[in-house]
Amino acid sequence: MRPVLTRDEMRAADAAALATVSHETLVTRAGTAVAQAALRMLGGAYGRRVVVVAGKGSNGADGRVAGGVLARRGALVRVLDADADADAGTGAGAGTGAGAGAGAGSLPPCDLVIDGAYGTGFRGRYDAPRVPAGTPVLAIDVPSGVDSDSGAAPGDAVSANATVTFAALKPGLLQDEGPVRSGTVAVADIGVGFAPPKAMLLEDADVAAVLPSRPRHVNKWTHAVGVAAGSAGMEGAAVLCTRGAMAAGAGMIRLGPPGDPAGAWPTEAVRMHLPAQGWSGAFLEGAAKCKAVVIGPGLGTSGAVAEEIRAVIAGAPVPVVIDADALTALGDAGAARTLLDKRSAPSILTPHDGEYERIAGSAPGPDRLVAARWLAAATGAVVLLKGPLTAVAAPDSSAVPDVLLAGAGVPSLATAGSGDVLSGIIGAFCARGVPAHEAAALAAHVHGRAASLGPAQGLVAGDLPGLLARLLTVLAVPDAGAELVEVVGVRDVAGRGHSAGVDRG
User: pLDDT tens, 330-379?
Assistant: First the structure.
C-alpha cells in the first residue's frame, strides 16, 4: 500500500523534518528531484528553453533550485514571478534571474514549463498563465490551483504532463480534477519521514499480502457465501453477483432469489426456493453455514421487501455486504445506525453517489475520503464509496489507516451490473477471512484491475468474472506480477492509472 498524506499530515511531516535538517537542504533535494524529472522530459538540457513559474513559498524555491540545476547543464532558463503579470514581464532576458512576471497572461515560447507557483498549502482559485501550444508542463508537488486534499480546481488551474510530489502521494492527486491535471505522478524521497498515514492506496502487490491462500484442508463450505438477490425481471443482478463471488474464491454459493423466479441461474450455485413474501427466515436458515452474506442486488424496493432485507441484516451472524436495493432499505443514516448496531459482525455499505445522498442527506462532494469517513462514523459500518477514486472507510476513525483507496480502474466500469459483480467479490473475500475493511478495498482494487484487462470499448459486467479469475491467479502469488502479461495477454501490468470508474450508476 502506498501512503497518501493530507495537507495537515504533510505540514506535520515537514515540521518534524525541520527539527533535524535545514529548510535549505530540503529545498535543494526537492529542486534537484524536479530538475532530474525535467531532464528526462527534455531529453537533455543543453540549449533547451525552460520557463520556471515560481511563487513566494517553498514550491517557488524548489523551482528556482531546479532552474539553477538546468542552467548549469546548459539550459536557457527564465524564472518568472507567479504573482506578477506575465505579459508585462516578457522583456526579461534568458538566465535564472527573477523579476519577470507569470500572472494570468501568456508565457514566452519554451521547451518546458516548470510550475512552482503554489503547493499543498494553496486554497482558493488560481488562474494559471497560458502555456504555449504543445509545450509540456512539469508541476511541483501538486499542479498549482489544485487543492491537495480534495483535488478541486475552481479556477483555470495548471494542467501538467507530469508531477513530482514529495514524500508521499496527496489525496488531491487522486480525486476530482487532480488526476486529469497532474499527468504522470512520481513520488520523490527527499528525506521527509512521517507518522503512519490515515489513508493508503492499494497496489497489485497487496493482493498476495492480504488475501489468504486456500489451505490444503479446504472444502466447499470453508468459504461459502449466501446471496440474497434477484427478483422477477432482475435475475441478472443475482447472476452477476454470484459469478463475481465464485471468481473471487467462494467455494459454495447459496443463492436466494425471493419468489423463486425462473432464470438462467449459474449451475454451480445452490439455489434456495424462497417464498415471495416473508422469506428472510428461510434465507437465514439456508445460509446458516455461510461465512458471509451479500444482500440487495435486484431485490426491489417495496416496503415488504425492505422489511425482509432488514430482518436478514439484523439476523445474519456473519459479515454482510449491503448493496443496491438493500441500501435503500436502510433508510437514512440514523435508521441505518439503529439497525446495524444490532449486529455483532461487520457490515459493509457500498453506495454510489446517489445512494450516498439518500442515506446521508447530501451528496458526497469532491473529497471522497471525507465523505466516506463521515458515513462510516454515522452508520457504524465499513463504507465503500464508489467513484473515480473509491474510498473505503472504517467505522473506527482511530484506525490507522482508516481509509483505504482503490484507484486502479477504468471508465469502462461505468456499465450496468458491474457493481453487482463487485458486491460478490467483497462477499467472497470476507468469506475467505479477510477483515471487512481490507476485503472491501481489495475487492474494489481487483475489480478495477480486472476491467483494465478487458476491452477499452464494449466491456460488459459479464466479462468481469473471467478477467478477475485470471488476474487473481497471478496476483495472489507473491512476486508473480510480471507473469500477468503472459497469463492475461496485456502489456501494462503495473496498474498505473489514477482513475477508477467503479460503478457510476
Answer: 999 999 999 999 999 999 999 999 999 999 999 999 999 999 999 999 99
Phi and psi (nearest 5°) for 273?
-100, 85
**C-alpha cell read off for 130:** 497560458
Give the contacts of 457 (CB within 8 A, at least 6 positions apart): 412
Separation between Cα atoms, residue 241 and residue 427, nearest integer Å: 9
Sheet holding 76-81, edge to edge: 100-101, 76-81, 49-54, 112-116, 137-140, 162-166, 184-188
The C-alpha cell at 385 is 464509496
How many Å separate Cα 443 from the centre of its chain?
Answer: 12
User: Running DSSP on this structure, what letter comes out for residue 196?
Assistant: P
Inter-residue contact 373 to 384 (CB < 8 Å):
no
- The separation between the first and the last C-alpha atoms of the chain, rounded to the nearest angstrom, is 28
> How many other C-beta atoms are found inside a 10 Å radius of the C-beta of residue 341?
11
User: In the block, which residue shows the cell 505522478?
Assistant: 185
Q: Identify the residue whose cell numbers are 496476483.
A: 475
Closest alpha carbon to 118 in 93, 155, 92? 155
* DSSP-based three-state secondary structure for 271: strand
Question: Nearest 5°: phi and psi at 24?
Answer: -60, -40
Which cell numbers in the block locate residue 186?
512520481
Cα angle 236, 238, 240; round to 5: 70
Helices (H), 184-234: 205-210
For every residue of 55-69, DSSP letters joined together read -SSHHHHHHHHHHHH
* Cβ atoms 41, 235 nearer than 8 A: no
pTM above the 0.85 mark? Answer: yes
Instruction: Give the Cα separation of 331 and 339 in Å (integer).
Output: 10
Nearest to 367 by CA among 380, 385, 383: 385
Strands 390-393 and 382-385: antiparallel
Q: How far apart are CA 203 and CA 193, in angstroms?
A: 21
Contact 387, 353 (CB under 8 A): yes
Kindly provide the residue ranges of all beta strands, DSSP E only, lying in 169-316, ordered along the sequence: 184-188, 199-201, 224-228, 252-256, 270-271, 292-295
Which tens digit of pLDDT belongs to each residue from 127-172?
A: 999 999 999 999 999 999 999 999 999 999 999 999 999 999 999 9
Per-residue pLDDT reduced to its tens digit, 421-477: 999 999 999 999 999 999 999 999 999 999 999 999 999 999 999 999 999 999 987
CA-CA distance, 99 to 437, in Å (whole number)?
52
What are the DSSP calls for 383-425, one per residue? EEE-SSSEEEE-S-TTSSS-EEEE----GGG-STTHHHHHHHH
